[in-house]
């Protein structure tokens, strides 16, 4: 007779936190409204939202590193970012602390813009939330790898690689796109998700529930029953 331990539930087995979708919609509404103001020059948004090296470093308009996250070059640019922002924002808001998302995500997005602007011509403009979107995707994939232990590690890695390749590796290189912001977003997303896991490891692991199955003489548990769920 032997005992087989099967992991049945993890932190990600539970339903997403209530109102996570509401938060996602609120953030999307803010991004959409801000872009509308910027593109139409309403409230002077076209003069104070976007970031350039000249404005941020020479004129000390530091806030632009964050306001520019909410501005987009056109409707296509906005929709392209929202396509991934919606699902990732929902899942991050549904399972992880608010200070992590949207707090750390957008704060980091502004910090990344300083690094990106430093590599660009002084008069070039940087707009968009794509760096944050890459941060969000990397954070979700990393936490999935660390938490979702119901699947073997090799399978989790396979899924992570497929998702990353499909969603975050461009099939063409476009000169108007800042790929450095994408790379920085993905890298910092991985690092900060690993930091969150280390900080909340005990809490995440406490959500795991295992089923202890007694197996005797090759008779499967489906023929005679198993044990109770335990943390």
Structure description:
- The protein has 231 residues and is mainly alpha-helical.
- The protein has a single domain (2-230), classed as Rhomboid-like fold (Up-down Bundle).
- The protein is built from ten helices and five strands.
- Helix 1 runs antiparallel to helix 5 (75-95) and helix 7 (130-147) packs antiparallel against helix 8 (153-168).
- The radius of gyration is 22 Å and the shape is elongated.
Give a short summary of the structure.
The protein has a single domain, classed as Rhomboid-like (Rhomboid-like fold, Up-down Bundle). The protein has helices spanning 20-40, 45-48, 53-58, 64-67, 75-95, 99-118, 130-147, 153-168, 179-206, 221-224; strands at 2-9, 51-52, 125-126, 209-215, 229-230.
- How much helicity do the residues have? 55-70%
Low-confidence region ranges: 221-231
User: What is the CATH C level class, in words?
Assistant: Mainly Alpha
> Do you know the CATH architecture?
Up-down Bundle
Envelope shape: elongated
Main sheet overview:
3 strands, antiparallel
Total domains: 1
Superfamily at the CATH H level?
Rhomboid-like
The spatial strand order of the largest sheet comes to 1-4-5
Q: What structural class do the secondary elements suggest? A: mainly alpha
Distance between the termini: 23 Å
Order of helices and strands: EHHEHHHHEHHHEHE
Provide the β-strand percentage band.
Answer: 5-15%
Number of strands: 5
- Fill in the CATH topology: Rhomboid-like fold
Using only CA atoms, what is the Rg? 22 Å
Helical run tally: 10
Average pLDDT reading: 90
């Amino acid at each position: 007779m032997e005992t087989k331990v099967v992991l049945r539930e993890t932190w990600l087995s539970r339903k997403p936190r209530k109102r996570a979708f509401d938060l996602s919609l609120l953030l999307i509404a803010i991004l959409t409204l801000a872009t509308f103001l910027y593109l139409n020059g309403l409230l002077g948004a076209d003069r104070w939202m976007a970031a350039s090296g000249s404005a941020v470093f020479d004129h000390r308009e530091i806030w632009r590193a964050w306001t520019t996250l909410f501005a987009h070059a056109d409707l296509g640019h906005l929709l392209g970012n929202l396509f991934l922002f919606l699902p990732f924002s929902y899942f991050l808001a549904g399972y992880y602390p608010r200070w992590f998302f949207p707090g750390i995500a957008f704060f980091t997005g502004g910090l990344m813009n300083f690094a990106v602007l430093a590599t660009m011509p002084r008069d070039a403009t940087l707009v968009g939330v794509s760096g944050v979107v890459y941060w969000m995707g990397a954070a979700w994939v990393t936490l999935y790898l660390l938490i979702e232990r119901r699947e073997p590690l090799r399978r989790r890695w396979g899924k992570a690689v497929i998702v990353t390749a499909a969603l975050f590796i461009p099939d063409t290189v476009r000169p108007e796109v800042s790929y450095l912001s994408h790379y920085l977003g993905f890298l910092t997303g991985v690092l900060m998700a690993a930091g969150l896991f280390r900080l909340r490891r005990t809490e995440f692991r406490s959500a795991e529930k295992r089923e202890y199955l007694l197996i005797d003489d090759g008779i499967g548990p489906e023929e005679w029953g198993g044990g109770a769920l335990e943390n």
